[in-house]
Amino acid sequence: MRLDKFLKVSRLIKRRTVAKDVSDQGRVWINGRDAKPSSTVKVGDELTIQFGQKKVTVRVEQLTESTRKEDAAHMYTLLREEANNG
Questions:
Q1: How much of the chain is in helix, strand and coil states, percent to nearest 5?
Q2: Structural domain that includes position 14
Q3: pLDDT tens digits, residue range 27-42?
Q4: CB burial class (10 A; 0-12, 13-18, 19+) of residue 63?
Q5: Could you report the per-residue pLDDT of 45-61, keeping only the tens digit for each?
Q6: Number of domains into which the chain is organized
């Protein structure tokens, strides 16, 4: 599954266009490597996303083309959440 689609479907990022922009800005990594919006996401991958002053790392648990809001959190496991203080 494409990275931008995964971020939207899992609701880590609300809109696919925003997910694409964040990836284009170099603020998303897959297994420690820079990721483009078209990068392929697989089960078991670790995604790190820079949200302003916060860096979130999750492990991909499942891939589904669409999901209900209640089920979106089952698509990933939160591994780390770090605040970037200056």
A1: 25, 35, 40
A2: 3-83
A3: 999 999 999 999 999 9
A4: middle
A5: 999 999 989 999 999 99
A6: 1
